[in-house]
C-alpha cells in the first residue's frame, strides 16, 4: 500500500480471563488504516470487532487484557502507554463513538459544555474560544440552532441529534482517526443515511480516517474504502471494498453478502448463515468457521489456515487460496 498508514494494528491479541478459562476475543488481528480513508469492520455479533478497538483505545477493562501485539498511531507505539499519556492521545489524536450516545454523554450536563470540556482538556484555548468552536462543530455536523442546543441536556435531544453531538465531540479536536462502533444501528434509516454521509464528508474535509464498525454490508458498500471481515476474533478476509464485492472469496464473507440488507430497509434478520458463532472457549481445532462452512474439507477441521494474499491487498483466511502467498 503506498498511502501513508496512520493507524497500524499488528498481531493484536486480547483475552478475557474468566472463571471458565481464557477467552481469545481478539486473536492475532492486523489492520492498516491509511490516512483519510474509511475502513469497514464487519462480522456477526461477538466476533471481536468492539474489543479490537477498545484495545486500541486502551479502554479494555478487567477481566479483559491486551496480551500481545503492537498498536502504532502515526508511527508511535501506543500499546503500553501509561494512563496519563493515553489520556492525551484519546479524544485528541484518536477518538471513538458508540452505538448508544446516552451511555457516553453525561445526563446532568448540557451537551455544548460537554463538547467544550473535550476541547479544554486537550487544547490551550480560552473558554470563549472553545465555545465558538463547539458552535462551529455543531453547525458542521448539521445541528440546527446551535446556540440553543448548546444548553440542551442529552435527554432533550432526539437519538439522531445525540449522535451528531457525539460525532461533533469526536471530531472537534480534529483527530487523525475516529472509530465509530455501530454508530447508526439504533437510528432509523433516513437518519442513518444522513449520519453516514456526514462522516464521509468530515473524513474528506478534515483528512480524518474513520473506522466504521458495522454488521451491515450495505453500509460498507456505500461508504467504505477498505473492508475487514472478522470472525471469532480473527480477520477472515480483507480487501478494497470494490474487490471484496467483485471477488468475494471467503465462504464466511459469501454468507454475509447473501443476506445484504438494502440501505433503505433495516435488516429484519441480520444473517442467515446456518449455525452460530462458536464458543471462544471451545474453538474448533482447525478453521474457526469450519463447523458452519459448506465448503469445508477434512483438513479444515484439523489445521488452521493463514491469511493468504490472492491479489494485491486482498487477503483470505481459507485453504482454498493457499496456492497464493501468505499475507504479511
Ligand atoms: N466481559 C467479558 N467477559 C468475557 N468475555 C467477553 C467479555 N466481553 C466480551 N467478551 C468476549 O469477547 C468476544 C468479542 O466481543 P465483541 O468485541 O464485543 O464482539 P462484537 O463487537 O464483534 O459484537 C465476545 O464474543 C465474548 O466472547
Ligand atoms: Mg460490538
Structure notes:
The protein is built from ten helices and 13 strands. With 328 residues, it is of the alpha/beta class. The chain starts with a strand and ends with a strand. Helix 3 packs across helix 4, helix 3 (111-122) packs parallel to helix 6 (159-171) and helix 4 packs across helix 6 (159-171). The protein binds adenosine-5'-diphosphate and magnesium ion.
* CATH architecture type: 3-Layer(aba) Sandwich
Query: Beta-sheet strand percentage?
Result: 15-25%
Q: Tell me about the largest β-sheet.
A: 9 strands, mixed
CATH topology: Rossmann fold
Task: Assign the CATH superfamily.
Answer: P-loop containing nucleotide triphosphate hydrolases
How far is it from the N-terminal to the C-terminal residue, by CA?
A: 12 Å
Helicity level, as a percent range? 25-40%
| Strand order in the largest sheet | 6-7-8-3-9-10-12-11-13
Mean pLDDT figure: 91
Number of domains: 1
Structure class: alpha/beta
Shape: globular
Radius of gyration: 20 Å
Which stretches are poorly predicted, pLDDT < 50 over at least 5 residues?
A: none
- The helix-strand sequence is EEEHEEHEHHHHEHEHEEHHEEE
Number of helices: 10
CATH class, anyone? Alpha Beta
Amino acid at each position: 500500500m503506498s498511502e501513508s498508514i496512520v493507524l497500524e494494528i499488528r498481531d493484536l491479541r486480547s483475552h478475557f480471563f474468566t472463571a471458565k478459562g481464557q477467552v481469545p476475543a481478539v486473536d492475532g488481528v492486523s489492520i492498516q488504516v491509511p490516512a483519510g480513508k474509511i475502513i469497514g469492520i464487519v462480522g456477526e455479533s461477538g466476533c471481536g470487532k468492539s474489543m479490537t478497538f477498545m484495545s486500541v483505545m486502551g479502554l479494555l477493562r478487567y477481566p479483559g487484557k491486551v496480551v500481545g501485539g503492537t498498536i502504532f498511531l502515526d508511527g508511535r507505539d501506543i500499546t503500553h502507554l501509561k494512563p496519563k499519556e493515553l489520556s492525551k492521545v484519546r479524544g485528541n489524536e484518536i477518538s471513538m463513538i458508540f452505538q448508544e450516545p446516552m451511555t457516553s454523554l453525561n445526563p446532568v450536563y448540557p451537551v455544548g459544555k460537554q463538547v467544550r470540556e473535550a476541547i479544554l482538556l486537550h487544547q490551550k484555548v480560552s473558554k470563549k474560544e472553545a465555545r465558538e468552536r463547539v458552535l462551529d462543530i455543531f453547525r458542521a455536523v448539521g445541528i440546527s440552532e446551535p446556540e440553543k442546543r448548546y444548553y440542551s441536556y442529552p435527554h432533550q435531544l432526539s437519538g439522531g441529534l445525540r449522535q451528531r453531538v457525539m460525532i461533533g465531540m469526536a471530531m472537534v479536536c480534529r483527530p487523525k482517526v475516529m472509530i465509530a462502533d455501530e454508530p447508526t444501528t439504533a437510528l432509523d434509516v433516513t437518519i442513518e443515511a444522513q449520519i453516514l454521509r456526514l462522516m464521509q464528508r468530515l473524513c474528506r474535509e478534515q483528512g480524518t480516517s474513520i473506522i466504521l464498525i458495522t454488521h451491515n454490508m450495505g453500509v460498507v458498500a456505500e461508504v467504505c474504502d477498505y473492508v475487514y471481515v472478522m470472525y471469532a476474533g480473527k480477520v477472515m478476509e480483507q480487501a478494497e471494498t470494490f474487490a471484496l464485492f467483485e471477488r468475494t472469496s471467503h465462504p464466511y464473507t459469501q454468507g454475509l453478502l447473501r443476506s445484504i440488507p438494502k440501505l433503505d430497509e433495516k435488516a429484519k434478520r441480520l444473517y442467515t448463515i446456518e449455525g452460530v458463532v462458536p464458543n471462544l472457549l471451545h474453538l474448533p481445532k482447525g478453521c474457526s468457521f469450519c463447523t458452519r462452512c459448506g465448503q469445508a474439507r477434512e483438513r479444515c477441521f484439523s489445521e488452521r489456515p493463514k491469511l493468504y494474499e490472492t491479489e494485491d491487498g486482498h487477503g483470505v483466511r481459507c485453504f482454498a487460496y493457499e496456492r497464493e502467498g501468505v499475507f504479511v
